[in-house]
UniProtKB/TrEMBL annotation:
Stated name of the protein: RRM domain-containing protein
Keyword RNA-binding: yes
Pfam families: MYG1_exonuc (PF03690), RRM_1 (PF00076)
Gene Ontology cellular-component annotations: cytoplasm; nucleus
Family named by the database record: Belongs to the MYG1 family.
Organism: Romanomermis culicivorax (Nematode worm)
An individual GO BP term: mRNA splicing, via spliceosome
Region (Disordered): 159-267
Skewed-composition ranges (Polar residues): 249-264
Length: 612
């Protein structure tokens, strides 16, 4: 809004210092709200001829600022179409990178819709950003940039929608029709009936997805991200009031009241460039690996990339147009969404990015995506899971973030960077060829495959790693983590079991070793527990386990005595003079007894024998 001498007299009532344009966008938002409140007090509400909107009666364009850089044209259409037919949109993008600059311009079919949009959407919060919506005076269509094709130039000049069809229309321009028909190979066509009472979108997109589904998905996503109750949210400092007396909630209501018997054109056609709606993830072509397959899958777990197209190429010009690039390009720059690790200068680990984490393995493209988006990805995977409170949920997310990296992603990082698990001086006793990275490598087309179908095989690789990734997260969250409370209770009760405090009884079978090690460290009691016992429901006996020195190790803190190992049943019972023994393993790491009392006697006797 710009004040000048040509303003209507009633508008000049407001042109004091407190309402002049300032640089602070939030101040401008508040000023427009104050204008609306003043119109209410002065009785101008509902009278367009006396409203400040009158100055912009000849313009159906609005300015939209303060946008989240991740929002696309399709997102804006989803939000702003509730107040009228949108016929043109120009989201300002950087000429070099193609990235949004956070503001743009949108044109409605009539000026009335601009009033509704400015009154109701100015100051709302979308994707955690307060946006500014204002009128635009004498907006000019962007000039040609030189790198645009004929289709884009035509869209800039004519907008998203053609002129309304008239009842008495001239003969078709056959040449014009054929040009448009030919151009449809590179655009998305959306046919949409004009609004009467309800919007009823019936046409389809070439990719097979319905535009109304995409629009509703965007709307739902941003409503959810803007407010917990699904409504658009206003900041506390800005009240959300419409100064309209006529209570038109949308342009369709206004049309019903003011149109000639509701007569509307039968159909309108919208044309958008597909690259403005569908985002793209770039990675290299040729032989694929586990890390970029996982990186692409993880990105597609995020709502903003869920429908993104994966572009496999090494062409810098094509990669430049991608919204995010992984494992190619020789650049690591999170601000521009570039995540390659092959450049000579790259030597980052998870600890390099977050100093409080212990992981020092060099990151691959999978690790980079996980480092920057891992917590958000885990939230998306578990978004339907219930938690008692947000603080508890955040704590669980942090634990799962570390757990999933340690037991899934780090292995992929190490293998892609050629890092051995053990010292090269050690000779392996057998080969391991069935790791996830090996299985992904096996999906690459063979050298003598006459029809390799490389991209289809990469899709299979993404599905393979994705299924295992999701499986691990759901297991850690639904199986591994709930066991902690059981282990903690058993640890706290250890002194009631035996005065030594070295025996832990689990009341229920569960994953316990890693939790025990964590709890011991937290309680400053490392190495306290020597044996654990629990009932094996399948075999109906009590297992006795010698606690290992590490969760994955077979070397124990206190293995069962050598003289017990390999014995079973009566022979074992006779040797150690304890009834109902079942067995002791040949390595001494575990055993069993048919009763709880017998199991505890075996453990205590082992403790006594070892102390002697």
């Amino acid at each position: 809004m710009k004040w000048n001498q040509n303003m209507p007299e009633q508008t000049k009532l407001y042109s004091d210092d407190s309402f002049t344009r300032v640089m602070n966008p939030l101040t401008n938002v508040k000023n427009l709200q104050k204008l609306n409140e003043r119109e209410l007090r002065m009785g101008f509400a509902g009278d367009d001829s006396r409203s400040w909107h009158q100055k912009y009666r000849d313009s159906a364009w609005i300015f939209i600022g303060g946008l989240n850089f991740e929002l696309s044209e399709g997102d804006l259409i989803a939000v702003f179409s509730q107040y009228g037919e949108i016929v043109n949109i120009n989201l300002i993008r950087d000429k070099q990178t193609g990235k949004s600059r956070g503001f743009g311009f949108l044109c409605y079919e009539d000026q009335r819709s601009t009033n509704l949009a400015v009154d109701n959407l100015n100051g709302i919060k979308i994707a955690n950003r307060i946006i500014r919506v204002d009128h635009v005076e004498e907006y000019k269509i962007p000039k040609e940039r030189g790198d645009e094709d004929d289709i884009v130039k035509r869209l800039h000049l004519e907008g998203c929608a053609p002129e309304k069809e008239e009842s008495s229309k001239p003969e078709k321009d056959v040449t014009r029709e054929s040009e448009i028909e030919e151009s449809r190979n590179s655009v998305v066509k959306i046919e949409k009936p004009s609004i009467k009472k309800e919007v009823n979108t019936t046409s389809t997109i070439e990719s097979g997805k319905r535009y109304d589904d995409i629009r509703n998905k965007h709307r739902n996503d941003y409503q959810k991200s803007s407010s917990h109750d699904g409504k658009y949210n206003k900041p506390d400092s800005v009240e959300h009031k419409s100064h309209r007396k006529d209570n038109f909630s949308s342009k369709s209501d206004y049309q019903q009241k003011n149109s000639n018997n509701g007569n509307q054109p039968e159909k309108r056609t919208y044309v958008f460039m597909i690259r403005n709606i569908m985002k793209s993830i770039g990675t290299h072509n040729g032989t694929f690996h586990c890390d970029e397959a996982l990186a692409c899958f993880m990105l597609k777990c995020l709502p903003r990339f869920s429908d993104a197209k994966v572009v496999r190429t090494r062409d810098p010009q094509l990669l430049k147009k991608c919204d995010v690039v992984v494992d190619v390009g020789g650049e690591y720059d999170p601000s521009s969404m570039r995540f390659d690790h092959h450049q000579r200068s790259f030597n980052l680990s998870l600890k390099s990015i977050e100093s409080d984490l212990k992981f020092e393995t060099k990151l691959s493209s999978a690790g980079l995506i996980y480092a920057h988006f891992g917590r958000e990805i885990i939230r998306e995977v578990l978004k339907n899971e219930q938690s008692s409170n947000m603080e508890e949920k955040s704590s669980i997310i942090e634990i799962l973030f570390k757990k999933c990296y340690a037991e899934f992603v780090e292995e992929i990082d190490a293998k892609d960077n050629g890092i051995d698990q053990f010292s090269s001086e050690l000779k392996p006793k057998f080969l391991v060829t069935t790791t996830l990275s090996n299985r992904v490598a096996a999906l690459n087309p063979s050298w003598n495959d006459k029809e390799p179908h490389e991209n289809e095989q990469f899709e299979k690789a993404m599905q393979l790693v994705g299924e295992e990734f999701i499986d691990r997260i759901t297991y850690f969250h639904g199986v591994w983590w709930p066991a902690r409370s059981i282990v903690l209770e058993a640890f706290r009760s250890r002194n009631a079991v035996d005065i030594s405090g070295a025996i832990m009884i689990l009341e229920q079978v569960c994953p316990w070793k890693e939790h025990l090690f964590d709890i011991e460290i937290e309680d400053d009691q490392e190495g306290a527990i020597k044996y654990c016992t629990f009932h094996d429901d399948r075999n109906d006996y009590w297992m006795i386990i010698a606690v290992p020195i590490e969760p994955k190790s077979f070397t124990c803190r206190k293995p069962f005595p050598e003289s017990w190992r390999g014995l079973r049943d009566q022979e074992l019972s006779k040797t150690i003079e304890i009834e109902k023994c079942v067995f002791v393993h040949a390595t001494g790491f575990c055993g069993a007894n048919k009763t709880k009392e017998g199991a505890l006697k075996m453990i205590k006797k082992s403790l006594s024998a070892l102390s002697d």
